[in-house]
C-alpha cells in the first residue's frame, strides 16, 4: 500500500474529487494547510498598510491506495489539478506498512 499526499489549490478540490471517484477512489482526508514554495506568498492591504503574507493557503489530500492504483491516482490528480501556473502543488508518495479498519478489525488492502 502507498499513501499519496497531494497539495493542491482550493478551487481544484471538486474537480479532483470527481476525477478520483471516476477511477474508484472514494476515501480521502482533506486538510487546510499553508505553505511556501516558488510562489513566494502575496501582499495584502490591512488597515491601510501593506502586509506580506509568505504562506499560501492550499489543501492537502491524503489517500491510501493499493500499490497497483498509485500511478493512476497520481496521473488523475496531475491532469485535474494542473493549471500550468506556479503554485499548482506537489504530490508525495510513501509506503504504508499496515492498514486496520477499527470497526471490523480487517487489515491490509481490504481495510481501505
Characteristic terms for this protein:
single chain, 112 residues, alpha+beta, Alpha-Beta Plaits, two-stranded antiparallel ribbon, 20% helix, elongated
Question: What would you note in describing this structure?
Answer:
This protein has 112 residues and is α+β, with helices and mostly antiparallel strands. It has a single domain (2-111), classed as Alpha-Beta Plaits (2-Layer Sandwich), CATH 3.30.70.120. It is 20% helix and 36% strand. It contains 2 helices and 6 strands. The chain has helices spanning 13-22, 70-81; strands at 2-8, 29-35, 42-46, 49-53, 56-65, 90-95. The strands form 2 sheets. The protein has a 4-stranded antiparallel beta sheet, covered by helices on one side. A two-stranded antiparallel ribbon has the order 3-4. A hairpin with a 2-residue loop joins strand 3 (42-46) and strand 4. Helix 1 (13-22) packs antiparallel against helix 2. The mean pLDDT is 92.
Amino acid at each position: 500500500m502507498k499513501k499519496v499526499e497531494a497539495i493542491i489549490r482550493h478551487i481544484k478540490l471538486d474537480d479532483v474529487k470527481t476525477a478520483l471517484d471516476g477511477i474508484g477512489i472514494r476515501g480521502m482526508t482533506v486538510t487546510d494547510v499553508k505553505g511556501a514554495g516558488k510562489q513566494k506568498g502575496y501582499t495584502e492591504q490591512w488597515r491601510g498598510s501593506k502586509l506580506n503574507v509568505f504562506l499560501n493557503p492550499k489543501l492537502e489530500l491524503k489517500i491510501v491506495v493499493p500499490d497497483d492504483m498509485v500511478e493512476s491516482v497520481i496521473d488523475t490528480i496531475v491532469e485535474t489539478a494542473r493549471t500550468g501556473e506556479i503554485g499548482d502543488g506537489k504530490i508525495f508518495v510513501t509506503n504504508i506498512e499496515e492498514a486496520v479498519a477499527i470497526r471490523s478489525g480487517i487489515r491490509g488492502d481490504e481495510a481501505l
